[in-house]
Amino acid sequence: MSWLLYLFAIVAGALNTAQSGANVTLNKSLDQPILAALVVAAVGATVYLLAAPFMGLGVPSAEKVAAVPWWGWLGGALGAVYVLSMILIAGRVGAAAFTGLTVTSAIVTSILLDHFGWLGFDVHVAGLWRLLGGVLMIAGLLLVCIF
Question: Which residues contact 102 (CB under 8 A, 6 or more apart)?
Fold first, then answer.
């Protein structure tokens, strides 16, 4: 089963890169970055609603809502910043550089989050091999961006 999860993550990564192109094209066509971002959000909300019957949609109790840490509510805002950066930057720097920058920064940030167990992640110590992986990601990013 875990191989299926990895496969889904790989597909999601590929779709994320394709999303950059779709969002850049939408912005170029509309010439309105905020409107393009709103369209992206509306289409995303539609997909969530279509998926709800298959995944379940319930109303959480007041206790569950109250138990969410303050930073747990920021995911939508963080996603919006990412979408806006995609719309405004990806077309200028190219798919490889934009994806390389975002994925590499995500890996480096993930190593920190895992190491310290921040934002609800289980602790996974940033040992030599994880740190080397982060350095190699940075090196690969430099190669992609320079050449």
Answer: 82, 85
Compute the half-sphere exposure of residue 45: CA atoms within 13 Å on the CB side of its CA. 8
Cβ neighbours of residue 52 closer than 8 Å, sequence gap 6 or more: none
Nearest in space to 86 (alpha carbons), one of 131, 39, 24: 24
pLDDT at 116 > cutoff 80: yes
Mean pLDDT of 38-58: 94
Closest CA to 86 of 45, 48, 43, 37: 37
Average pLDDT for residues 48-61, to the nearest whole number?
92
Instruction: Count CB neighbours of 29 within 10 A.
Output: 9
Provide mean pLDDT across the span 7-26: 93
Q: What angle do CA 59, 60, 61 make, to 5 degrees?
A: 120
- Residues ≥6 apart with Cβ < 8 Å to 126: 111, 112, 114, 115
